[in-house]
Amino acid sequence: MTAPSFAERLSARQTDTTSLVCIGLDPDLQRLPHHLTREKNAAQAVIAFNRAIIEATADTAAAYKLNLAFFEALGAESWGVLQATLGAIPETVPVIADGKRGDIGNSARLYAHTCFDLLDFDACTVSGYMGKDSVAPFLDYPGRGVFLLARTSNPGGSDFQEIEYQGRPFYEHVVRTALAWEKPGNNRAKGSLGFVAGASDIEALRRIRALAPDSPLLIPGVGAQGGNSNDVLKAIREGSGPVLVNSSRAILYASAGRDFDRAARQAAGTLRASLAPALS
Amino acid sequence: MTAPSFAERLSARQTDTTSLVCIGLDPDLQRLPHHLTREKNAAQAVIAFNRAIIEATADTAAAYKLNLAFFEALGAESWGVLQATLGAIPETVPVIADGKRGDIGNSARLYAHTCFDLLDFDACTVSGYMGKDSVAPFLDYPGRGVFLLARTSNPGGSDFQEIEYQGRPFYEHVVRTALAWEKPGNNRAKGSLGFVAGASDIEALRRIRALAPDSPLLIPGVGAQGGNSNDVLKAIREGSGPVLVNSSRAILYASAGRDFDRAARQAAGTLRASLAPALS
Q: Which of B72, B149, B252 to mutate to test the interface with A (most CBs of A within 10 A)?
C-alpha cells in the first residue's frame, strides 16, 4: 500500500469541506486592522492576525497558501512568525509555501528541504525557467506537491508566457515539458506535479486544464485581480484533478475593523458557495 | 550630481582589485571543514567558515554572492547568520543576494525591500518568467543592481532558455525585452539591470554580451561546472559592462582541512589571474 499522493490528499480535503477555496495569507502590515498594529509589534500583530483569520476560516478553507515575501519582510522574526502561523493551521488542511523558488540542482534540493523537511509544508510554488533539475528535487518528496508556474495572473504574465512557440503559447510548452518529468520512467509519483494558472486569462486556464486534466491546479486572480468564479467553473469542467481557487486580499481585508475575522469568514464562505458546483 | 549606478560601482571595484572574481558563498554543512562542524553548532560553524573565507579573500574578490538557499536551510538561525556574514564583508565590496525571486508586483516589492532596505545587499538575482512587474520593483532602487536570469549554467538551463523564438533562442528574447524596461522613458536608471549568463554555454554568453554590451554580467559555471576562463575572456571581449565570474565550490572547498582559508585564497587568486587580461 502506498501513501496517498498530494493530489489525493487535496481531493479528500475538498470533499470533506465542499470547498475549492485556498486562502492566501499575505499579511501586509499596511493593511492589518489598526487595533492590532497599535497594540503589538509587527511580528506579534501578524501572528495575531493570521491566527484569527485561520480560526475563522479553517472549516471553509480547502487549503492555505503562505506568501513567503510577506514573512521574509519581517526579518529576524520571520521564521518564528512562519512557525506560529503553521502551528495554528489544523493538521488536516494542506498548506502551500508560495515562494516561487527555482535554482540549480543543489540549491533546489536545499529549498525543498527547508520547505518540506524543516517547515513541513504540503506543497510549494516553483518557477521553471531553469528547467528540469530546478524542479525535480521538489518532486522527490512523496505525498508533497509542486505548483509550477504556467500562466500567472499578473499584468506581466503575458510578457513571456504568451509568446508563440511551435504554434502554441509558451506556457503550454512549459506544461507539456513538465508533465514528461513526472512519467513513470522518471521515477516520480503521479499526483505531485500541479500548475499555477490564473483566472485573469480564462482561455489559458482552459488549455492548461485540457493538457493536464489530472493535475492539481492553483488558480489565483479571482476577486481583486478581476477573475470570476463562473468563468473558472466553465474552464475546469473537464478533468478530474483537484483545483484550488486562491483568494488573498479579498478575504483577509474584507474589513479593516475589529470584525475582520468574521468578515473574512463571510467572504470565504461566499467564494466557497460560488465554486461549490464544481464538487457536485 | 547623481549617485553612481550599480554598474559604475562594480566597475570601480574591479579596477581597484584588478579582479573579475565573484566568490559565491554557498556554505554547505556537508562540506564544511570537520574541525568547524565538530566544535560548533550549525549556525556558528557557518559564520566561522564565512568569516574566515571573507577575511582570506576580501582583497581578491570583486564581489561576493550569497546563495540564499544555503542560509534559509539554517531555519530560525538563518537571519542571524545572514547578518553576521554581511557584517564581515568590507563596505567597499558589492554583495549579491542570490535568491532568484520573481513574483507579482506587490510581492516583488516586498522581496526588494527585504533585500535592499533590510539586508542592504547591493544587487540580487531575479527570475523573469512573470514579466515586467515582477522585475521592475527591483530596478526602482537607485545604485542597486539586478541580475536577471538569461542563460543559466545548469543542465536544465537548455530546457526552456534555448527554444527558438522568432529565429533566435528564447534567452535572447528575455534580454531584449528586459533592456526595454530600463529605457529612459520607463524612468529607470541605466546601470541597474544586468544578466546571468553561464560559462557552460559560451555561444550564449557571446550573444548576450553582444545584445547588452554595457550591462553587468554575472557568469557562473567556471570551474566545477566545466567552463573555463579563456573561453569567457574571448566571449566578453567586446562590450564595456562590468563582468563578474562567479566561483563557489572550487574556492570554498579547495581544502577540507584547517588550511581551507589559505587554499580558498589561493584558488581565488588563480582565478583572478586567469581573468586579469579582461581588465588591461
A: B72
Measured on CA atoms in the order B235, B237, B239, B240, is the torsion positive or negative? positive
- Chain A residues touching residue B181 (CB < 8 angstroms): none
Which chain A residues have a beta carbon less than 8 Å from that of B69? Answer: 101, 103, 107-108, 110-111, 114
Choose the mutation target among B30, B107, B163 for the interface with A, i.e. most A CBs under 10 Å. Answer: B107
C-alpha–C-alpha distance, residues A103 and B61, integer Å? 23
Q: What is the pLDDT of residue A187?
A: 57
Per residue in A41-71, pLDDT (tens digit) is: 999 999 999 999 999 999 999 999 999 999 9
Closest CA to B95 of B75, B67, B73: B67
pLDDT of A1 higher than 60: no
Q: From residue A118, how far is each of A110, A113, A114, A121, A234 by CA, in Å?
A: 10, 7, 5, 8, 38
Domain spans in chain B, listed from the N-terminal domain onward: 6-279
Question: pLDDT tens digits, residue range A191-236?
Answer: 899 999 999 999 999 999 999 999 999 999 897 777 899 999 999 9
Check: complex ipTM more than 0.90: yes
SS3 A23: strand
Asked whether the beta carbons of residue A69 and residue B161 sit closer than 8 angstroms, the reply is no
Show residues of chain A in contact with B152, CB under 8 Å.
104, 129-130
The class level of CATH for B6-279 reads alpha beta
CA count, 13 A, side-chain hemisphere, A17: 27
Known catalytic residues of A are 100
Task: In whole angstroms, give the CA distance from residue B130 to residue A202.
Answer: 17
> What pLDDT band is residue A188 in, cutting at 50, 70 and 90?
low
Confidence of residue A3 (pLDDT cuts 50, 70, 90): confident
Q: What is the dihedral of CA B38, B43, B48, B51, to 10 degrees?
A: 160
Pairing of strands B95-101, B21-25: unpaired
Residue of A nearest to B154 (CA): A104
Confidence class for position B14, pLDDT limits 50, 70, 90: very high
b/e sequence A138-167, b meaning 16+ C-beta within 10 Å: bbebebbbbbbbbbbbbbbbbbbbebebee
Where in the sequence numbering do the catalytic residues of B fall?
A: 100
CA A193 from chain centre, in angstroms, equals 13
Chain A nearest CA to B162, separation (Å): 11
- Choose among B80, B101, B156: nearest Cβ to A130: B156
Q: Are B67 and B96 in contact (CB under 8 A)?
A: no
Contacts of B42 in chain A (CB under 8 A): none
- Which residues 6+ apart lie within 8 Å of A178 measured at CB? A128, A135, A148, A193, A195
Nearest CA in chain B to A115: B73
Q: Domain A10-100+146-162+193-279: what homologous superfamily?
A: Aldolase class I (3.20.20.70)
Q: What is the pLDDT of residues B38-66, one digit of tens each?
A: 989 999 999 999 999 999 999 999 999 99
Q: What are phi and psi of A89, to 5 degrees?
A: -90, 125
Nearest chain B Cα distance for residue A118, angstroms: 7
Q: Compute how many other C-beta atoms are within 10 angstroms of the C-beta atom of residue B8.
A: 15
